Amino acid sequence: MEKHEHGQHTYIADPESQGEMTRLLNLDRVTTRAMGGPLSGVSDWPEEAHVLDLACGPGSWVLDVARAHPESAVTGVDISNAMIDFARVRARTQQLSNATFAVMNITEPLAFSQASFDLVNARFLGPALLRQSWQPLLDECTRVLKPGGLLRLTEPVDMAGITTSAAHERLTVMLYQAFWRAGYAFSTNGYTLGLTTMLPRMMRQSGYRQVHCQAHTLEFSADCEAWQDFYRNAQVLFSMLPPFLLKTGVATQEELEILSEQMHAQWCSETFCGMWHLVTVLGEKA
Known about the structure:
By secondary structure, this protein is α/β, with parallel strands linked by helices. It has nine helices and ten strands.
């Protein structure tokens, strides 16, 4: 893995990649739309709240919240220097002085004081955290949250959606298998992610109260507006992952090339159907 300012990362893709930045910009927009806004599920919002977004990527969620709540201070952290540089430029361009960004490795102790934030948010940490890193991260979230503060974690049930494309489904299973072999997520057999199953209990065991889940779905069938966004996401995602899939031994280069070609053809069929499922888990620090 490539060395970064804050140590060795465990993100399955190159966090400094321009292609990954473009993919995340698109994915952030689609996700926020699917969830009904950047703060869906958050009912109580203190005045002048301090908010932290973990693994913020190019900063879209931070900027959305900062724009909607100019009285609040919203901070995003990410391992990628390129992502943080870009997020800072976006904040200046949009004149959002209440949005700040810092390079930080979320698998290490966070550079914030105890009880600093009213809300800690994160989306899609699965590709960035090894299985054993989840509990230390929850402990750090607990440390930096104020009493009564909210932890809000959003993860996909099915990482790339469920579709009628046989090639896409095969590639997705390969991805789950690679995650399992490399020590990510919580599947018992390598055919699921298992994250959304485990997170509510882990949060309760970490002392959070009123833990509850919020489900989100988004259709991206051929006749839906979201199809193009998901098609682009799948193109970039599966073009970046061959090194990870090959390293874990779940596929050969020839298999990946054939499946990739078949997937693109099947996605472009007028009968293509797809659905994406997400779960947000929320809990209050005691």
